[in-house]
Amino acid sequence: MKQQFLTLLPLALTVTALPTVNKRSVKREVPQEHAHDNVNAIVKASLDLNNPDNIQDTIFGLLGAKAAAEGAGNIADADCLQQATADQAFTNAKDAGDVDGMTFALIYRALERNTGSVGLASVPCASLQAVNPEIAALQQHQDPAGDGAQDLNKQIAGELARQIAAIGGDPTLANEASTFAPGEIGDPTAAGNTCDDIDPEGCINSQGLRVDDLSDAELQAALADTSGAGIAAAGNATAVAAVGNNTAQASDSAEAAAPSPQEAQAGGDAAAGAADFGSCTNTDIVFGIPSDGRNEDAFEAADLTNFAHGSALNIKVISSFICDQLVNKCEANQAAVDKCDAANTAASSLKGQAAADAFNQAIAA
Questions:
Q1: CA-wise closest residue to 159 among 102, 218, 222
Q2: What is the domain extent for residue 329?
Q3: E strand residue ranges, 97-200
Q4: Which of 70, 6, 12 is closest to 44 using CA atoms?
């Protein structure tokens, strides 16, 4: 099904118009920014719907910072260009009710960026906060030859699958963000295992070079695990430091690992068994004609400020998003997250108002 979907997309409109980039302006891993051209093209189409920051093309966000700056438009921090591109594309697709566009914006956010040598970690975005929590929950894949990078990439892919499922997309597409087999550390050519041929399918796909992060079993396990949500929001610096090799990254890792006062308080509350929902006081789900223009009964969160998600015909899309947001945004403690997971399960087999009532009653119990 996935291959058929990719074949039908109008890729020629965008891929053939990709800009010329000075690929030799900085020494880096042999350019691979065209490896996922199937993703680039779809995200470019979403980005072009509204591009207030004048980002020149999706390609630039996958380059190292020096080359990326050439097409960053109004984005001052080139290390945040990939996130900013994904965030704007996601917003545009969401406004258009385009689940596929939202899905591929999430995939784009998780793609690997070029770096200067095999095994070198790319720099995380630290100066910008994504508008969309689904984008904020993600980070880019790292060169698989880096220390700990393959395990990290599996975590990223698992989080990507959860975020895709939460918007009503096909979570099996999370493997579209997977990268190449690891290259050899110290390779004097800095080549690694890459491709950079312009191909509507993405040369990593058409040349059989993509190494999927998740098996079917691992994908199902990731979807069943809501406790791991938001690795970028909760520990981006820690995760990237695990594959980096300098003191500054290690320092960031230690700082990210230290619990905030809110987290420390949440931990104490959890130990005491009391559910603390943090800054989110209304977790109810409503069923009826929703506020986003859909003209049929559907589910949506009562609190659209903290749980900003389009309506859905399946309650699990909304209930899973609420549970994820308790982790990603609300600073809820584990007892509250556990209660939400239980409410999610209680409602999942029901329909309509009965499903909403079951969720609301279980989470308030």
A1: 222
A2: 261-364
A3: none
A4: 12
| pLDDT score of 192 | 55
**Per-residue pLDDT at 10:** 40
Domain count, the chain: 2
Question: CA 25, CA 105: separation in Å to the nearest integer?
Answer: 27
Please compute Rg for the chain using Cα positions.
20
Residue 300 and residue 224 share a domain: no
* Same-domain status, 117 and 21: yes
Co-location of 286 and 320 in the same domain? yes
Using 70 as the pLDDT threshold, list the residues of the chain that sit under it: 1-32, 187-192, 226-272
- Are 233 and 298 part of one and the same domain? no
Closest CA to 38 of 158, 173, 139, 194: 173
What are the tokens at 325?
């947001």
pLDDT of 90: 97
Give residues with Cβ within 8 angstroms of 2, minimum separation 6. 170, 172, 173
Residues 155 and 21 in one domain: yes
181 shares a domain with 83: yes
Indicate whether this model's pTM tops 0.85.
no
Residues 78 and 148 placed together within one structural domain of the fold: yes
Give 258: exposed, middle or buried? Use CB within 10 Å, 0-12, 13-18, 19+.
exposed
Are residues 109 and 82 in contact, defined by beta-carbon separation less than 8 angstroms? yes
Residue 324: its pLDDT value, please?
84
Instruction: Round to whole Å and give the CA distance between 359 and 345.
Output: 8
Residue 141 and residue 149: Cα distance in Å, rounded? 8
